[in-house]
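Researcher: Good morning. I'm working through a list of sequences from a screen, and I'd like to move beyond sequence-only analysis. For each chain I'm collecting a predicted structure so we can compare shapes side by side. This is the next one on the list. No need for commentary yet; just the structure.
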Amino acid sequence: MERKSMKGVVIPTITPMTEDGKVDEQGVAAFAEYLIEAGVDCLYPNGTNGESLLLTEEERQRIAQIMVETSHGRVPVFIQCGAMTTAETISHAQHSVKIGADGIGIMSPAFFPMDEEALFQYYSDVISTLPEDFPVYIYNIPGCTTNDVKPELLNRLMNTFPNIAGIKFSSPDLMRVEDYFEKADRKPDLLIGCDSLFLQCLITGGVGTVTGPGSIFHERFTRLYRQFREGDMKGAMETQEQIVALDRKLAGIPGIPGLKALLKIRGVIKHDVCRAPLRPLSGEEYQKLEKIVEEYKKEEQING
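Model: Good morning. Structure tokens for this chain:
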């Protein structure tokens, strides 16, 4: 069986919820179907945008199962398994194998400062419980976790575990992207978590982006990836400029509540409820997003 990978336009899926703040299982399935039909390349549930650290272990595993079942092999589904304890991270990783996910991502531990040796032990404890051929991506988002997987550590992990395919790096540091390649004995599949650097990451040698806004503005993100693969650099540069302009318009809006509001405005989800302590948007913020979507539809000539 062909080994799947994370590449292209990867969507870190939000978690649809009901009005009373429970996971909307039908909404999860419908959202996955919408993204597959939109032509994205991979689904990545239970990450930052999925509010994973605000969900119970049972909720996360049910979401993962729904995503895998809904995709039914049409696009790769990689489950983000990182949690606040090693034991729960292992539980999510093993569950991902059980349900037939194509692989996993593992976020670094959050809040508590960890040195390189502690991070190496954490990843080792999780990955050593998995089948040797089960694909794993490290998820480094130091701005949120405070724990940074540096190039030397990634190289050490990849030399220890051949099933580590690469890393998702959520930072605007393009020099670090180059360092991940330069200091690697085995080149990692690198995905950027910064929309404004999507094209630059591909040019540098990366394989894709992990983008929350790509779930709403998927026409633009999938077009850029197609243009790059076809060698249309002029078109790709123009599309990247449009993505940067969108990114700047969204500045100042709370991230996850903003994504859910945008998806509701586009008619993809019924409710834009987030789990507390994430706050709902103000009326002014919501109106700003409505205007952004309306302008986007005109620019892309989308109806409905």
